[in-house]
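Ligand: S-adenosyl-L-homocysteine. Inputs:
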Amino acid sequence: MNNGKVTHGKCTLVGAGPGDPELLTLKALKAIQRATVLFVDDLVSDEIVAYAQRTARIVLVGKRGGCKSTPQAFIEKLMIMAAREGENVVRLKGGDPFIFGRGGEEVEHLQAAGLEVEVVNGITAGLAAVTSLGVPLTHRQHAHGVVFVTGHARPGDTGTDWRALADTAYKARLTLVIYMGVSGAGRIQNELLTGLPATTPVAVIQNASLPTQRHITTTLGALADAIHAGGLASPAIIVVGDVIRSVALAAAHPAAVRAA
Ligand code: SAH
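Predicted complex:
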């Protein structure tokens, strides 16, 4: 991925998956074990960081690192410096680096600084969350496709067009997998109700794949109230669509027992 340019060091963006270390890919594990410096995001679990060499330098760049969270430009500057010093740099990100992880921006900036960048996929939270309920994201009877969408808009950005999305999801029979949607759930619910029935099934899954996982199932018409009543908070995935009806199928699935 260096576009044939002269490079001054290399860095690997590694998807750490949703939290459960067993959901790491072998490629991710090997990259973590090779790293001499790791820049670690908030949502990456300690057990995964523990796979790094004992001598590796661990830089926590999320809220755990100290202050609110390290500014993106500063993280990139540190990564560039470390790579130029010949370190084996790994940037460990939750889920998949290219799903709402700002991985795209990071790759552009690192390449512009002359670094060679490799990206290792991880299992994205939306995928793991739904599977943990024993529910498929697509199903020939319930959904012809799936949309991964963010519930969080950048400041000054109008964000997702929920009305258009509701219309399309209804007509095309798509499952909606909403990241970062819990705090805006009331607004998302109201907008989606313009195109989807109030009876549309919804699941909200918090801390997917971790021992602390909890979930609720509800309907679109009751979404915000159910989140409030269930006390669910970030990090959570909201899944909207008829596939959630098959949660009944999942009753025998062990993860469902951990439900709220
Ligand atoms: N790159 C990540 C997403 C980063 S955005 C990925 O591919 O998964 C952060 C959002 O991801 C959170 O607000 C939440 O919506 C979701 N998320 C991350 N980990 C999660 C988990 N273990 N359980 C539920 N949602 C999670």
